[in-house]
């Protein structure tokens, strides 16, 4: 009697051990460890190949200034992907926030003078963030209340937000940004650009939100299994709204960072960012089907891609070659993950037979 | 599973779509007397041709349960590459140009298909990646120059000027409408009357079940993406012929408009559902709005927002219908979930 | 009936290992035409692996499969189909978006390597099978719109469209009502007369003994029993499956006479589900709700838990009327629910055990700053691991790696951590091995003794008899009987359920 149970539990134990060992390996390989290695390798590669250009302090500064806005957008998308969704509208939202800030500021500056406008700066910036959160809320309503699939909802809102930005700006690039914001874009603290600090702070906040707060854990559970999370009393509406509003807010922050770097805004800024941001998030170890993501992985992926970008520039390669590299990295990483997953599955098949079989009941008589 | 099934139940709202189109036509006719003319109609047909071909490809992929955003990149890659191949005037009838471009397109499509089917990866993300690769390779290694009418192969410029019908006042019906209509009919027939077509629906309905009844899923998907690549290439050449120029920077960026049109046409983003008829209507509606907003006095900057709103409305209706369907047969649905 | 014809399927010495663990260890099986052969065994005994190998989905490490005289080293799915082996999967594997006719005939269209697909040919082929079996089915309806029983029939028709010689039915009765099961048996006998050999995989011993001529029991990847079904009793098969005698004795603690009412359900109705259902539950009490599938037993639980809220009636929790319009409301009111389908509804399979355990109680761990108190979480998890005797190497293993019994304990742990006043359990031991079954029942008794109110919805009558203070019997959406104390008797329940 005990013998059987002992054997069963021993078998279970063996399966469990093999499996959890595999999982542990994947976890390390999947996010942070792999990205850190990749970052070191790419950095070393370009540093060795073109040290005079690549290791130049101006170039390093540039990486520090260009990477942050993309990093913040990636965090915004990562949140959506964590719930098993996607947010294609992040770049449109960022542009919306940038256009809002730029035009409100310009309006004040022309009607009430530069000083009055400068004193309004905090309010103007808040307006930009508010626009980000509001547009995020539009996504949230469409996804959590109307019930549209995230990919279609954000595909539509991306068009709408972008279209409205076109209408607002008349399709031209508008210029003007609060002086304080502009100086933020060119300041560095102890050699670290302020924009990079903004990214670090944003990343830390997102990490705390996701890992250390009840709502953050619920967002992750929602992504891992939406049905089970509903059956655990987790409100789908609340988690999705939180996710998309936060995502919109982060996109708003990214919009302000656009302006800080370059005091002009247009509906079409960063049109290539959508692909780039998805590459970063997937490369950073986020599961496109939801349920797992690491902030540090995404952060490292953002920096790595910026290193690749400036490395390509140092090697005199074009933006199109960078686009090729992005595509190859994206597809390559997913294929590698899949191959690894299949190898793991061989081991898992055993636990498949030992795992509970889904069954409903029927009458015995 | 239940939710997915219920959402799949969204009506194939062709009828509704037709009604909307009629309404839009009536509204536009009332707003502008210049609207209801043969010229406007032919212009609508002309501007719908390329999107329609692309939309067929998008439809096929959606039915199989995927989303493809790389087709504009494939289209311009294939068309531009073919044009540069035949630019030195080394012969090449229009037929040859189409054939070569479609071969190139099928090759690029095969790349998509192999990666997607062999490794079972999310199609949207894979095709986002390959889109970047295709466009990047085209501009970095094949050519980045704008090719104007004077430098195009003569077969193409000749084709540009072939009209089927001319009307007074400058309107005309382009002869390429004939092959376009033939392709539309062929795709519709394929989906309805071939085992390949039914297999695409089956894969989109339940991939695992398809595997179990003996459909070779990987092979079918690879063929499918090759076909979609060839369709995209065909559309690309039509685009070059109609525009009388070849610009490697063009087309990419229009993918979302096309997807919007197909989804409006009732195809389900979850796979297994969609029809050629609905797709045609979806494309016509989007083009109707894109072409004629200005005519009725709305600035052209509103185009993108208008299409976006249309898409959101269309999918909202589907979502609402699905929610209503979900709350009906409770007992049955619960059992399905098990 | 004994069958002596040459076997249509013969499986010899199949060995299959996964990562060093023997899933099948020298399994042999032979099947004569027209024989119904039952394959029984607990979860993890190797049944599913054996089916996968016979249908060519998985490849054996060694051993041979002979179908109709041809021996295959390793079989591919298409070879298996062409040799006449068909599997009816538990989930039916149908295409929800296609018509019934197309679902049935797709297989033959593919097997004949056709290029063009003809609606009339498909319709005719499907009609032929349907007529053959004497069924009435709407062949033009989309499968998505059909009932579960109809879907099962379609799956059977599909398996037969290509003249199957061997038909494997994997737990075919799980989703069927009593009368539907009887109808299925009629079809099985008709197929048998036509010489189709049937492998019937089930864990329901009564069904097994009713329908099969021969019986093979697997345990831990080995054949432990094989022979004529008539030579076995329910108890003998159960013993063979588990390796021990299972006691089915009644053990119920007394409920304190002054125990407070925790749940009062008054005149609850839901269109198409149940009508005018009332009952009450006291602290420390275990209430059983049983009935045939489709009787409304599950729907009542789902209404109380807010999944599909009731149309009318009142629910009082701890004396206070509560409006329960969503799961969220129910959880807020202090109700927990262990669902029937724990894999999709109860568990986060790719998330560590520890996180599954606190999934329903995250808000309780909020510190003053709005963050999670991780030290308290760790303490709770260690405590639950011990209390529920969960067998896993550590709490950071993912739930997917657990056996049925351990996985169910994780679902229980999730709710115990939330400390609901009332816990509803729907089919708490379905798909759980016999050892764990007993322990889960013991855990329920312990929780009840500690003051929780427990409702068990199940059709496992021995289990209900063994632990419930009272049992409600549901028939056609109504409570038709309430048994308590010494009136609780398995035969009586059976009789009332079918009435």
What's the overall average pLDDT of chain C, rounded?
A: 86
What's the gyration radius of chain C in Å? 25 Å
Question: What's the CATH first level of the largest domain in chain C?
Answer: Alpha Beta
Query: What is the CATH superfamily of the largest domain in chain C?
Result: P-loop containing nucleotide triphosphate hydrolases
Query: Strand arrangement, largest sheet of chain C?
Result: 6-7-8-3-9-10
The SSE order of chain B reads HHHHHHHEEHHHHHHHH
CATH architecture classification name of chain B = Orthogonal Bundle
Task: Give the CATH architecture of the largest domain in chain C.
Answer: 3-Layer(aba) Sandwich
Profile the largest sheet of chain B.
2 strands, antiparallel
The parts of chain B where pLDDT drops under 50 for at least 5 residues are 1-11, 326-338
Task: Kindly report the spatial arrangement of strands forming the biggest sheet of chain B.
Answer: 1-2
- What is the 3D form of chain B? globular
Percent of residues in helices of chain B: over 70%
* Class from secondary-structure proportions of chain B: mainly alpha
**Over all CA atoms, what is the radius of gyration of chain B?**
21 Å
How many β-strand stretches of chain B? Answer: 2
The CATH top-level class label of chain B: Mainly Alpha
What percentage of amino acids of chain B are in beta strands?
Answer: under 5%
InterPro entries (chain A): ABC_transp_permease
Transmembrane segments (chain A): 31-49, 70-94, 123-148, 160-181, 187-210, 238-260, 266-286, 293-313, 319-339
Main location (chain A): membrane
Membrane topology (chain A): Multi-pass membrane protein
Name the descriptors.
heterotrimer; A: 365 residues; mainly alpha; ABC transporter involved in vitamin B12 uptake, BtuC; two-stranded antiparallel ribbon; 15 helices; 4 strands; 79% helix; 2% strand; C: 499 residues; alpha/beta; Rossmann fold; six-stranded mixed sheet; 17 helices; globular
Descriptive notes:
The complex is a heterotrimer of chains A (365), B (338) and C (499). By secondary structure, chain A is mainly α. Chain A is built from 15 helices and 4 strands. A two-stranded antiparallel ribbon of chain A has the order 1-4. A two-stranded antiparallel sheet of chain A has the order 2-3. Helix content of chain B is 71%, strand content 2%. A two-stranded antiparallel sheet of chain B has the order 1-2. The termini of chain B are close together. Chain C contains 17 helices and 20 strands. Chain C has a 6-stranded mixed beta sheet with strand order 6-7-8-3-9-10, sandwiched between helices. In chain C, strands 16-17-18-13-19-20 form a 6-stranded mixed beta sheet, with helices on both faces. The longest helix of chain C has 16 residues, at 178-193. The model of chain C has no long low-confidence stretch (mean pLDDT 86). Classes of the chains: A mainly alpha (365), B mainly alpha (338), C alpha/beta (499). At the A-C interface, helix 1, helix 10, helix 11 and helix 15 of A face helix 7, helix 10, helix 11, helix 14 and helix 17 of C.
């Amino acid at each position: 009697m005990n013998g059987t149970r002992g054997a069963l539990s021993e078998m279970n134990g063996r399966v469990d051990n093999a499996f959890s060992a595999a999982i542990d390996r994947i976890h390390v390989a999947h996010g942070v460890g792999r990205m850190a290695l990749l970052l070191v390798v790419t950095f070393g590669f370009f540093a060795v190949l073109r040290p005079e250009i690549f290791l130049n302090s101006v170039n390093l500064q540039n990486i520090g200034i260009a990477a942050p806005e993309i990093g913040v957008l990636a965090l915004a998308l990562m949140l959506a992907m964590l719930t098993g969704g996607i947010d294609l509208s992040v770049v449109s939202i960022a542009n919306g926030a940038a256009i809002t800030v730029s035009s409100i500021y310009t309006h004040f500056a022309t009607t009430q003078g530069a000083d009055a406008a400068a004193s309004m700066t905090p309010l103007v910036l808040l307006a930009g963030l508010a626009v980000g959160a509001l547009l995020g809320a539009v996504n949230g309503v469409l996804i959590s209340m109307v019930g549209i699939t995230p990919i279609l909802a954000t595909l539509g809102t991306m068009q709408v937000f972008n279209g409205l930005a076109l209408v607002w700006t008349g399709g031209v690039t508008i210029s003007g940004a609060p002086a304080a914001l502009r100086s933020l874009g060119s300041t560095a603290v102890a050699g670290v650009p302020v924009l990079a600090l903004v990214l670090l702070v944003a990343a830390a906040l997102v990490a705390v939100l996701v890992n250390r707060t009840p709502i953050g854990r619920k967002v992750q559970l929602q992504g891992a299994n939406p049905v089970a999370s509903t059956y655990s009393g987790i409100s789908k509406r609340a988690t999705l709204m939180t996710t998309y509003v936060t995502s919109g807010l982060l996109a708003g922050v990214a919009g302000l960072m656009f302006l800080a770097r370059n005091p002009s805004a247009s509906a079409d800024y960063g049109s290539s960012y959508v692909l780039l941001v998805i590459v970063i998030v997937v490369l950073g170890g986020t599961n496109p089907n939801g349920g797992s993501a690491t902030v540090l992985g995404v952060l490292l992926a953002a920096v790595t891609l910026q290193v690749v970008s400036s490395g390509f520039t140092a090697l005199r390669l074009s933006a199109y070659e960078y686009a090729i590299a992005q595509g190859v990295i994206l597809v390559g990483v997913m294929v590698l993950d899949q191959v690894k997953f299949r190898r793991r599955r061989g081991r898992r098949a055993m636990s498949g037979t030992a795992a509970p079989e889904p069954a409903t009941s029927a009458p015995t008589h | 599973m239940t939710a997915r099934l219920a959402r799949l139940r969204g009506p194939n709202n062709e009828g509704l779509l037709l009604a909307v189109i009629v309404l839009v036509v009536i509204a536009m006719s009332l707003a502008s007397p210049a609207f209801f003319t043969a010229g406007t109609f032919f212009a609508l047909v002309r501007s719908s041709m390329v999107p329609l071909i692309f939309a067929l490809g998008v439809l096929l992929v959606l039915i199989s349960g995927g989303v493809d955003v790389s087709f504009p990149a494939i289209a311009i890659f294939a068309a531009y590459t073919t044009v540069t191949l035949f630019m030195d005037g080394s012969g090449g009838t229009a037929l040859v140009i189409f054939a070569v471009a479609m071969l190139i397109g099928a090759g690029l499509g095969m790349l998509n298909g192999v990666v997607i089917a062999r490794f079972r990866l999310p199609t949207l993300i894979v095709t986002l990646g390959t889109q970047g690769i295709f466009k990047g390779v085209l501009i970095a290694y094949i050519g980045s120059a704008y090719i104007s009418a004077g430098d195009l192969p003569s077969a193409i410029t000749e084709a540009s000027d072939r009209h089927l019908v001319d009307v007074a006042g400058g309107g005309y019906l382009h002869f390429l409408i004939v092959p376009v209509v033939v392709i539309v009919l062929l795709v519709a027939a394929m989906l309805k009357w071939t085992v390949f077509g039914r297999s695409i629906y089956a894969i989109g309905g339940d991939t695992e079940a398809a595997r179990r009844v003996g459909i070779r899923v990987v092979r079918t998907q690879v063929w499918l993406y090759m076909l979609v690549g060839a369709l995209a290439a065909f559309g690309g050449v039509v685009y070059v012929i109609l525009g009388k120029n070849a610009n490697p920077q063009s087309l990419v960026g229009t993918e979302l408009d096309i997807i919007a049109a197909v989804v409006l046409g009732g195809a389900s983003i979850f796979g297994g559902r969609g029809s050629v008829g609905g797709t045609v209507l979806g494309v016509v509606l989007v083009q109707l709005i894109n072409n004629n907003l200005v005519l009725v006095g709305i600035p052209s900057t509103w185009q993108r927002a208008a299409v976006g709103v249309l898409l959101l409305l269309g999918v909202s209706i589907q979502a609402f219908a699905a929610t209503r369907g979900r709350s009906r047969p409770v007992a049955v649905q619960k059992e399905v979930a098990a | 009936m004994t069958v002596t014809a040459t076997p249509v399927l013969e499986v010899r010495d199949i060995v299959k290992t996964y990562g060093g663990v023997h899933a099948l260890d020298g399994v042999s099986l032979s099947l004569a035409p027209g024989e119904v052969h039952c394959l029984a065994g607990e979860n993890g005994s190797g049944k599913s692996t054996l089916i996968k190998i016979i249908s060519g989905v998985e490849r054996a490490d060694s051993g041979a499969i002979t179908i109709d005289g041809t021996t295959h080293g390793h079989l591919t799915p298409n070879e298996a189909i062409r040799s006449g082996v068909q599997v009816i999967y538990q989930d039916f594997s149908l295409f929800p978006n296609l018509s019934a006719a197309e679902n049935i005939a797709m297989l033959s269209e593919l097997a004949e390597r056709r290029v063009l697909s003809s609606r009339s040919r498909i319709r005719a082929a499907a009609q032929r099978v349907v007529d053959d079996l004497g069924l009435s089915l709407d062949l033009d309806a989309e499968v998505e719109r059909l009932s579960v029983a109809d879907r099962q029939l379609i799956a059977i028709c599909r398996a037969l469209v290509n003249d199957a010689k061997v038909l494997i039915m994997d737990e075919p009765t799980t989703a069927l009502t009593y009368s539907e099961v009887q109808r299925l048996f009629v079809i099985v006998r008709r197929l048998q007369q036509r010489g189709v050999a049937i492998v019937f995989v089930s864990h329901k011993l009564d069904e097994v003994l009713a329908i099969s001529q021969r019986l093979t029991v697997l345990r831990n990847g080995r054949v432990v029993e094989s022979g004529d079904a008539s030579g076995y009793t329910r108890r003998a098969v159960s013993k063979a499956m588990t390796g021990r005698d299972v006691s089915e004795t009644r053990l119920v603690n007394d409920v304190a006479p002054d125990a407070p009412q925790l749940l009062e359900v008054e005149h609850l109705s839901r269109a198409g589900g149940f009508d005018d259902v009332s009952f009450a539950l006291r602290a420390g009490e275990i209430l059983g709700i049983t009935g045939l599938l489709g009787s409304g037993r599950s729907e009542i639980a789902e209404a109380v838990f807010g999944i599909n809220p009731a149309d009318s009636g009142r629910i009082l929790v701890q004396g206070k009327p509560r409006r329960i319009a969503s799961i969220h409301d129910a959880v807020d009111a202090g109700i927990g629910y262990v669902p029937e389908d724990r894999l999709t509804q109860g568990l986060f399979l790719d998330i560590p055990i520890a996180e599954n355990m606190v999934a329903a109680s995250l808000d309780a761990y909020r510190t003053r700053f709005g963050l999670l108190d991780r030290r308290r979480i760790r303490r709770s998890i260690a405590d639950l691991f011990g209390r529920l005797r969960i067998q896993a190497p550590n709490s950071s293993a993912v739930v997917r790696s657990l056996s049925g019994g351990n996985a169910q304990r994780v679902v229980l742990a999730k709710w115990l951590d939330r400390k609901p006043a009332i816990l509803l359990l729907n089919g708490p031991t379905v798909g759980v091995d016999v050892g764990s079954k007993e322990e889960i029942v013991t855990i329920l008794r312990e929780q009840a003794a500690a003051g929780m109110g427990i409702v068990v919805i199940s059709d496992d009558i021995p289990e209900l008899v063994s632990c419930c203070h009272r049992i409600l019997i549901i028939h056609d959406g109504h409570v038709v009987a309430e048994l308590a104390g010494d009136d609780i008797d398995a035969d009586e329940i059976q009789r009332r359920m079918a009435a």
